């Protein structure tokens, strides 16, 4: 009886050891847990479904895919276009309509506020415009180079036509009708309201003499003695020279200085201050820029001559190599025989 009792106690104590301290002697396998078995079964089932879908897609023909695309674009059963109902598309379009109307309105408001700070008559920022740039006429096909043969009228006719067209506003009769005579040697200061109309000084074409095209309609091109017209770019409120005269000079830029023997300037080599300052196109309507006619009466023939005509005076910059039109202009002159 004693042996039987001990055997029963051992049998009753064995489960306790398995659950409390005996787990180390009898560990459960992770895959034997009920929850894990269900997860593995679900994962295997999902993999099998993916493989079946891939097999079905591999078996689809071009016709099936086209049919699927057609159904996606318009499903007559659900009445959906590209997966959305008309109500859904309407809400999307309404949202973007409101969004872009708001952005357009905000942009227009910002532009309006900015324009309210600007004057249509005077630029707000003018610290980067002075000193002025220089340009010449004739100016053909965006080029300032002049190449021609005096005996061949076709080689220089375009230059002559360009000069005549440019000087139309400088005709004596036009200047007498639109502009007034001014006192030479002084700036023509016109005070008053910013929007008030300003008067302009006369610059008659006849003052250019040999470069006017009146006595010689070919401007000297037919005789190998060409004329060019030099002008400064317009800058509102700018007074060239700051009280001192601004002159023009021309010489060989790179090469033999003897290639240019004689140069004449009309009406003179100086820009008269009476044509300044300029008040803008809205108030200075009839303004005509002063010109300096440059007559190359004796230059070397059959030779490419790099000519530099520049402004000289206080505040003028004419040695800025990266800008060939700032205070000067460099062009090539070639007269062939």
Structure notes:
One of its GO terms (cellular component) is sodium:potassium-exchanging ATPase complex. This is Sodium/potassium-transporting ATPase subunit beta. It is found in: Membrane. It is a single-pass type II membrane protein. The strands form 3 sheets. The protein has a 5-stranded mixed sheet. Strands 3-5-9-7 form a 4-stranded antiparallel sheet. A two-stranded antiparallel sheet has the order 1-2. The longest helix is centred in the N-terminal third of the chain and has 31 residues, at about 85-115. It has 6 helices and 11 strands. Helix content is about 30%, strand content about 20%. Residues about 1-30 have low confidence and may be disordered. The protein folds into 2 domains: about 60-115; about 135-335, Immunoglobulin-like, CATH 2.60.40.1660. It has about 325 residues and is of the alpha+beta class. The chain starts with a helix and ends with a strand.
Number of strands: 11
- Enumerate the spans where pLDDT stays under 50 for 5 or more consecutive residues: 1-31
Structural class: alpha+beta
Largest sheet: 5 strands, mixed
CATH top level of the largest domain?
A: Mainly Beta
How far the N terminus sits from the C terminus, by CA atoms, comes to: 148 Å
The whole-angstrom Rg is: 45 Å
Strand order of the largest sheet: 4-11-10-6-8
How much helix is in the residues? Answer: 25-40%
**Mean pLDDT, rounded to whole units?**
83
CATH architecture of the largest domain: Sandwich
Beta-strand fraction estimate: 15-25%
Q: How many individual helices?
A: 6
- The CATH homologous superfamily of the largest domain is termed Na, k-atpase alpha subunit
Return the CATH topology of the largest domain: Immunoglobulin-like
Number of domain modules? 2
Run of helices and strands: HHHEEHEEHHEEEEEEE
Shape assignment: elongated
